[in-house]
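Blinded run. Sample ID left blank on purpose so nobody reads anything into the name before looking at the predicted structure. Input follows.
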Amino acid sequence: MNEQTGILALLFIVAFFYSIVGHGGASGYIAVLTLIGVSSLLVKPSALLLNIFVSAIAFYQYYRNGHFRWKLFYPFALISVPMAYAGSFINLDPTWYKRILGVCLLFAILRIMGVFNRKEITETKQLPLVTGLIIGAVLGFVSGMIGIGGGIILSPIILLFNWGNLKETSAVSALFILVNSISGMIGLLRQEVSWPPYIFWWLAVAVAGGLLGAYYGSKKATNTMLKNILAVVLFFAALKLIFI
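Blinded prediction complete.
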């Protein structure tokens, strides 16, 4: 029971802080569940399920506050959705699975700490359609293969090239994560999927954390100290996944 209480607390924290920046938290959930020894057969579908709910909550909050831009979203999503479905059928070697996840976690850490959040811009650049399609295709396939939504890599790219401001990036990333996670989940459901006995408790705390984090992120400034603490924890998790 103590172990499960700890898992629930960690999943809540991950959902809260990821949803602040418009993310579903799949890479964080996978790290938590993998590091405590949950079977890889259970980790991928569980993380995707939590991801779907939390990213949907994050998108709703950012959308209702007027931060979503369709023209910034659809070039990334057009090919990413079928590619996420295709990627869900790829079963990686456990060692490489952990290493790729660890690298994705590093992107998440940088995003959470605001490394890519340069001074708020007043004028954004137009996203080239072909560029968006290529980026979306790659991220969609990777997200389906690993069991994440791809937003942790998409967000830094949007910010680095000034295609959107901070709030717009969070809104677009949230929906990108949602549609890719649903696509990946459909692919998994066409295969043999097992669910852990505590999945509904995990889902409940993730939704609670997502509700609070998305509301906080879409309306108020973020707490730098707490975000940095989460980033440090994820950093050590990433190192363990990559090197151990």
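Unblinding after everyone has recorded impressions. The chain has one domain: 2-243.
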